[in-house]
Amino acid sequence: MAEAAAALGQFDFAGDDHVVPFQVEGLDVRGRAVQLGPMLDAILERHHYPAPVARLLAEVVVLTVLLGTSLKFDGKFTVQTKGDGPVDLLVADFSTPENVRAYARFDQALLNKAIESGETEPEQLLGKGVLAFTIDQGKFSQPYQGIVALDGTTLEEIAGVYFRQSEQIPTRVRLAAAELFDRDDAGKPRHRWRAGGLVAQFLPEAPERMRQPDLHGGDGDTGNRPHGEDDAWVEARSLVETIDADELTDPLVGTERLLFRLFHERGVRVYEPRAVFDRCSCSRDKIKGVLKGFSAEEIEASQEDGEIAVTCEFCSTTYRFEPAELQPAE
């Protein structure tokens, strides 16, 4: 079914936890933008992550949602970092058409040391390592994985490198996360997490216009505007780079208003929003199937107080099993 476009004001705004596809015909740009609120807050508060860890994971969730909602098939899109910093693992996955889950692992002692020394920028917390993007279309196809280095730059910049290497499409990504402190309807203090992001891609009809910038220092290096880069993409990228982090997370701005601010002179179109939800793919049957593959010795070693308890790292749901349930049928 074709997506229906509408001018700003002709329909209700998407609101939180809805991805808004958009197109700027005058600049040959397509993209998606999102603000995450209750869905993200549920994921982060479930684990009571320290603020620097929660902020990092929030950015990964936004990136995963922006890219995962572009899938044109049933499957799963996963973003995962592995590094040598205090936050050694971040993972978020998007299962079509709308389900998101995420998890972070960190070393508390190293994190405390980083906080004490003021080294809490994302690149400092992640350290050196890799960022992997995995697309899985199911059991009848091989997963595709793209890997880029965690090299001390931001997640925004690393995502840009991924697109340059894998899709060779000029792309600009913006990500932001923020804590909100306000009061609920009863007047009690309240703490919430919000995040937002935008991905813009240059997709002209003429493929030769999609020239990627020359590497810094190369023969075509002309400073801030690499030789051969299309004027439309230079303009679009420059507009995207004017976005403040606060604009991406401000609940009073809204995704459509932000897009209008950026691109109204060029005629931005927005399409039907896609909702995303905090839903884990774990289940009692799945975990039971894994445990049934254990040996008798492993089943014995896994017991505590006569039962086996397994807690999902993503959603924190605990499943309990009696050893007799895991014995093979006679």
Automatic annotation (TrEMBL):
Keywords: Chaperone, Cytoplasm, Disulfide bond, Redox-active center, Zinc. The keyword Flavoprotein does not apply. Residues 206-227 are annotated as: Disordered. The keyword Disulfide bond applies. This is Hsp33 family molecular chaperone.
